[in-house]
Design a protein that fits this description.
Shape: flat
Order of helices and strands: HHHHEEH
Number of strands: 2
Helix content: 40-55%
Strand content: under 5%
Strand order of the largest sheet: 1-2
Number of helices: 5
């Protein structure tokens, strides 16, 4: 084990690390999540002075991961709320529309209700529709996996290169 990590002063900068984490959080909130590399370098430099501080940095990462999970859960909850509200609106309109259609333009307090005609195409059997009425939409994407294999096999592709990265694994 690295002697600097093994014998670092674990308590010397705990307060400054927390302040730095808060500074990064505030900066990220003020700049749409964008944080300059210098701030990350400063945080890592403070944290890696001891194993305990590295553990603290990993806990910070895990805390941010938890925040992301909470955001995802909140997005799902709000999406479900929105879908339920849309369903309730559709149900009320379905009930109210025939009443207003029969009655005609109706004043309800500050609201004026009326109906208008619209047309909607309903497809009963797609297989019976002549191809004349079919639009073929084509999208293209670059197959990065195929490019990676071709480059690894020794071919050169203009405008592309492989980059080797070290990815941090936290378990």
């Amino acid at each position: 084990m690295d002697k600097n990590l093994e014998h670092g002063d674990d308590t010397m900068n705990i307060y400054s690390v927390i302040e730095l984490e808060n500074k990064i959080d505030r900066f990220a909130e003020a700049h749409d999540g964008e944080i300059p590399d210098a701030l990350y370098e400063e945080l890592v430099a403070e944290q890696i002075k001891s194993v305990a501080q590295i553990e603290s940095l990993v806990k910070y990462i895990k805390n941010l991961d938890l925040g992301i999970d909470m955001c995802d859960a909140e997005i799902a909850r709000i999406s479900e709320m929105k879908a339920k509200a849309n369903n309730r609106i559709a149900g009320i309109k379905k009930y109210l529309t025939p009443f207003i259609a029969n009655r005609g333009k109706t004043q309800a307090g500050t609201f004026t209700l009326s109906t208008r005609k619209s047309e909607k195409v309903i497809i009963d059997d797609e297989n019976k529709i002549p191809s004349l009425y079919t639009v073929i939409k084509q999208t293209s994407t670059i197959d990065k996996n195929m490019i990676k294999q071709v480059i690894k096999n020794g071919m050169v592709i203009d405008g592309v290169h492989l980059e080797t990265k070290d990815n941090l694994q936290i378990k």
